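G., before I forget:
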Amino acid sequence: MEFFHNPNIDFLGKKWYFLAFSLIFSVAGVLSMLFWHGIPLGVDFRGGTLVYVKFSHTPNDNAIRTAMDHAGLHNARIQRFGAPANNEVLIDLAEQETSEQALDRGKTQIINALESNAPAGKQDLNNASSLTLANYLLDKDPLRAGTDANQRYQAQAQAIVNARDKDHGGVLSSMDELKGSVDPAVIAVLPDGFYLSDFGVRNVEIVGPQVGKQLQTQAKLAVLYSLVGMLIYLAFRFEWIYGVAAVITVFHDTLITLGAFSLTNKAISLTVIAAILTLVGYSNNDTIVVFDRIRENLKLMRREKLSDIVNRSINQTLSRTVLTAGLTFLTVLALFLFGGEVLHGFSFALVIGILIGTYSSIAIAAPILVAYQDWKMNRAKVPSVTAAKTGTPAKVGSPGKAGNQAKVGGPAKVGKR
Amino acid sequence: MNKNLGWKLIVIIGTLLVFLFGIFGIPQNWSGQGLVAALENRIHLGLDLKGGTHLILQVQVNDAVNVDSDNAVERLKADLRARKINYTEITKPDPAAEPDKIVIKGLGPDAASDLRSIVSDRLPEYNLNSGAENAWTINMKPQALAELKNRAVQQAIETIRNRIDQLGVSEPVIQEHGLGDYQILVQLPGVDDPARVKEIMQSTAMLEIRQSLGGPYSSEQQALQEHGGVLPPDSVLLPFKGTVPGTNDSGQAWYLVSRASAVTGRDLRSAEPSRDENGQPSVQFTLTGEGGRKFAAFTGSHVGDNLAVVLDNKVQEVAVIKEQIHDSGVINGRFTEQETKDLAMILRSGALPAGIKYLEERTVGPSLGTDSIRAGVEAAVIGMAAVLIFMLIYYRAAGINADLALILNLVILLGFLGYSGATLTLPGIAGVILTVGMGVDSNVLIFERIREELRNGKTPPSAVEQGFAHAWITIVDTHVTTIVSAVILFIFGTGPVRGFAVTLSFGLFANLFTAVFVSRVIFDWLLSRKQRGEALSI
């Protein structure tokens, strides 16, 4: 089976279409970052409190809103999270309400607000830790346990927590659901001290302002270092212009991917930055494969124009580029569709980034090489006029003969490997 | 050639077995469940998968510096007094921002050499500088300051580890974090309600036994009035923890206690929860030999006086010294039973050298972790199956070759996780999936090249030879770029992100072996069984 049989597409001839396409997406992204959604930072970078709550029934947004208002949390953002059937809600407090003096105050306020109609003197079984349960059982002693009471009640408490969290997704809607995994005598005493609220806290993220700023700096540095790392490696392996072309390409990919986050208003978290760094490496893969082939062909086809060689190289590697990108895309798509809500941002970045990264290695990186050479040739013509004035001999030589393989593809230098 | 091939096969099978052992060890039983149990035993899951609490806290190192410079001020005053040198005041102008800065004002011009010798002899870790108007400043030497701060962080890590160990949290991570900001990373698997742990970690637990000189007073003003507006020398007013019957409406009370302490938490040998003579929960402590001697000397000379048990600068309890006490005592103070357990534990673990502040707190409930594992594994299986099936359809027989290489790649990656004890996080699972997607890149590169060479009329053996030779350089290049990214991620990332960097980079390393070496051996084996000129299925 073969998708491409000796393709012969004039990619360089379509460079203006590519440029237009890239410009539209980059500019749209940049405009959105500047004037619309800004750069939507996740809690990792902006600081704040996120509480993920799972309800046992379809959550009532208005009721949650009212409960938060009562608790004085007027700026809390409340949004549905994940698949609707999961009944999950994300409650989001801005950084101002997250002080480092009492880091978890916001979380406590949210939970207390949601539990505001609890029966007096009872604790919430859906949000009780196994320690609380073990202490309670030890006190009630429903099993008439002897010397090993501590151990037995700890095991029972753990069984309750496991049944709640592992078998019933974190929220019990009735204490009967514990039957089978917990001793009936234990279940019988639970209603005396516990009631069941309609929610369970699944996940809490609290990031103080100091850490947020620190992580921002680190993320910027990481992206910067990886770009510089690529530049150095490619300049070392090829020529500096290859490195520059690859880095411009990757920068283009990063910009468009970030733009996609801004346009869709998805939060950029630490894992998204991880995905972007991976893309920096991955997008370079495709570019390198094309560059490798250009270098090889430069040695084989010394008489041809650089633009022809580049076109030929892209076509020769097209099958491979599309195949590998397609396969990686397949795995990333699986991640995006089935990998769960926690990885949503991460896999979204990869889905966008792999599409853009593959496109750009064909449509951006190679044309930059040719454009650079054209520019060099043009400049070589001009100095030959001005050179006489300043008295320095023109170094480039006659453009007619050597110009076709000016510095970009000079076989002498490229062929040193 | 054939013999060579045999050796290579042995290397491959050996690798397979070694890494399979890394994944499963020797399972107890060979059923599906037994294998899963063995797998769970070998591969460490990150907090985001098994649930738990992740905390970042910062040691307020300036506290430790302040303690040191407070001592320096006291020593300076004592020495100047001993040499009968007059001064107007010795202060620390800005303890919050410059905790090591001490300013001496109003010193006579002829006392300069005395001051110099006092500082160089008695305060070797400080520098003396002269300022305007007979003012002198003393600052800690930069190196000594840095050492003091680092020591505070190390000591805090030690203390926190002691406390967490006693709480019985399994496999906690407690380590320095970040780049020189005095931060500590604490990971507590299985703890999904961190409030109590946080409180225990945060309590500085500075225990002191001092002489009680008066009280309770309902306010600081009242205490001052009763002493004619000036507190007696070497005494301080400290608040009482909780309320005292018979004091003012707010229930607050103050005691006047000696500045010096008879014994401190450092003199403790052990502390246990117990009950006092009235059956109230209390903490019983024993002192070390040295501490016992100090305590005996103090109580012996103060029979009939009051002593005050001071915890974190709050008076916990005041009691009459009925007789000389040697090496043990009891702390009372309206505790609950849980509080006495915690206090005894905290006292045993030692005091924190400085306060700590929480900067970040993340809790993953076990239900979310379970869901994440399910989703991650599902995505991995689907993604992997898609790639394997595609390779079979597109490259036919050679697809089997690629699939075998990919499966071995995965085995090596998981085996490595088992051996190294590296943690598998949710992004780490994503890294495994990406390794599959990116790893197959190498196979595609090679296969496409072989096809190209075959089209150009080469014989199968020479096409395979050429295909591998040409693709090799490109494969190295593509791997290096991705691994550079992953290494940078590892350096800058923490927790889940680090797990991703680890699986991705190791997966790609393994890929060099499987896609190039293993795949080549399979081709060579196939070719060695074919007749000359027979076509290659690719």
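Residues 276 and 282 of chain B are 6 Å apart (CA to CA). The first helix of chain B runs from residue 2 to 24.

More on Monday.
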